[in-house]
Amino acid sequence: MIVEKNKVVSISYAATDDSGNVVDSNFDFEPLEYLHGHGNILQTLEMELDGLKVDEEKKVTLSAGQAYGDFDPELVFEVSREQFPEGAAGLELGSMVQSSDGMELIVTDIDGEKIVLDGNHPLAGRTLHFSVIVKNIREATSEELSHQHAHKHEHGDGSCGSNCGCSH
Ligand code: ZN
After folding, report:
1. How far, in Å, is the centroid of ligand 1 from the Cα of 34?
2. Domains, the chain, ordered by start
């Protein structure tokens, strides 16, 4: 069996930046299981995994645009403490807050009454070097195909149940 559309693929991966720092990895955890060919992982990465077999490894370099997007300076803005309805007492560098329209923002600077928020993905603007190992490939269930994502198989019956979290 090879990695191709509509197969459920398990991968272990690590991503490093240009300086060699590991910025994302699941080698210490369970492999990531996803339904191939449905845009559930970064699209360029998904295309590069096409045709691999179990235990095959692939190194893929993604530009910022292919990974988490170019850094957009317009998503960085300054607000005052008064603009936080629940107060800004608990905020510190790296805190996540949500804007009124649901956007995730990271506190990147606190200077007295001024707070700088950044709506870019934490990995925006970075070239990422992925190292991926295919751990398992299996057929998708019809339910997974209709939902267009993989389900966990804790009970071995392939049911969606409470593990899915999707609204189908
Ligand atoms: Zn589902």
Report:
1. 11
2. 7-68+124-147 (3.10.50.40), 73-118 (2.40.10.330)
> Which two structure tokens, joined as six digits, stand for 102?
């649901």
Q: How far is the CA of 147 from the centre of ligand 1 (A)?
A: 5
Ligand 1 centre and the CA of 23: distance in Å?
28
- pLDDT tens, position by position, for the chain (168 residues)? 999 999 999 999 999 999 999 999 999 999 999 999 999 999 999 999 999 999 999 999 999 999 999 999 999 999 998 887 666 678 889 999 888 788 899 999 999 889 999 999 989 999 999 999 999 999 999 999 999 999 876 544 545 555 566 665
DSSP 13-82: EEEE-TT--EEEE-TTSPPEEEETTTTSS-HHHHHHHTT--TT-EEEEEE-TTTTT----GGGEEEEEGG
Span from the CA of 46 to the centroid of ligand 1 (angstroms): 20
Query: Distance from the CA of 157 to the center of ligand 1, in angstroms?
Result: 14
Enumerate residues 6+ apart whose C-beta is below 8 A from 2: 51, 52, 53, 137
**Ligand 1 midpoint to CA 82 (Å):** 41
